[in-house]
Every structure is written in structure tokens, then in C-alpha cells.
Amino acid sequence: xxxxxxxxxxxxxxxxxxxxxxFYDFVPVEEADVIxxxxxxxxxxxxxxxxxxxxxxxxxxxxxxxxFLMNKFGVGNLAKRIRQAESYCFHPLKMTAVxxxxxxxxxxAINEVSLLRETRQxxxxxIFVDGKERLDELVCDGVLVATPAGSTAYNLxxxxxxxxxxxxxxALTPISAFRPRRWRGALLPQKATIRFEIIHPEKRPVSAVxxxxxxxxxxxxxxxxxxxxxxxxxxxxxxxxxxxxxxxxFIN
Length: 252
Known about the structure:
- By secondary structure, the protein is an alpha+beta fold.
- It contains 5 helices and 17 strands.
- Strand 2, helix 2 (41-50) and strand 3 form a beta-alpha-beta unit.
């Protein structure tokens, strides 16, 4: 098994990479069977975006703070850990955003696609699911669509539901909704096509963000799963991503 090693630019990640190189030989990323990544969740998110069109599995080890997407760092038995690891494969969300000037932008999201107001005025957004209008006017700070992997990130902070892996749904979650006041969002099939129309976009400007890519002054945004791209993460059996997401539901 050929392993590649990549790391963030933090002191901890750099020193950890040096320790691994003392015991293992690594190959370039393009020659690897598995990519070993050292850093935190932010680094892993950027790395997955960089490798979206590379189907090599990634085994992350935490050298950051939370490390939700990472395994525990350790020098010993690395090859054995990787061989025994459980894999999680998923498809990113594809965002297609049309601006008020008519420009079309696309982006991919592993965690979520979020729409956010740009000024002091609340956003007014109309929501369609698979071509059917579901909400004629959402008055809010914003709204987001989160994957199961991203449901414990921004979605959870916005009081959205934690989604177990394998449930084949995404979360549609409002951000500080003013009207309808009691609307808490919805769970939708992963294959659903969700379209947002911005009401009065010149007066109430809205930006759209796919993880790390922002498009400002949008008039319409469509979100759907991109099944042409598959990302594989590897996790130690005793602490899989599925277990972490499940455990989050029992943390006060």
C-alpha cells in the first residue's frame, strides 16, 4: 500500500509529519493508494476541495482543535490502522448561483450551501423543492442546505437537526427566521433539487456560500447533489464518523 503524506502549516502538524517520515516512506499524492492528512477540520475541508476530482481515500489524523473529521494522531501501526479502517463515501452538494447581473457561478459543498443577507435588512426568500413552491416567503437572516457530514457544523449552530449517516436526507434549515416564525426547516431527500428565489434582491441583497466559495448579490440559487463526484474518508473502527455524529445527539 502506497501512502502519501500532506499536512497543514501549523507547528503541530509540521512536527507530526516529521515524526511520521522517520518511520515511513511516502510517495507523491498522484501515486498514492491512500492519502494521510495531518491537521484540523478546516484543513481537511480545504484538502477535500482540492482533491474533489481525485478518488484516492483520505485518512486524516488530528493535529488541530476539534478534529471531527479526523482520527487520533499516532505514529505506530499506521498501515494496519488504514487497512482496518471503515470507509465513508459521499457526494458533495452542487450550488448554481445566478447573480442580479445575470452571471452564473457554480460551487461544490461538502458541509453546506448557505444563503446569507448582506445588509442590515432581512432577506426575503422563496423556496422550491423539485419544482414545487413550498414556501412563498421566508423572512430571515438566511437559510442553508446541509449534508449529513455537515449537519453538526453551521447547521447545528442554526438549530438544525443532526442527520445520521446513511439516512439519505439533507437538512433545509432557516437562519434566524422572522416569518414564518415557527418554521424550523425540513428534512429532504438527498436527491431533491432545491431552488431559492431572492425577493427584491437589489433592495435586500443576499450572498450564497458553498463551504469556502462565496457569490454575492444572487438572484436565484439551485442546490442539488452532484453524484458524479465521490469522496472517501477512512476512520478507525472504534471511532467512526457515523458514531461521532450519533454521539453528538446526546451531548448537552
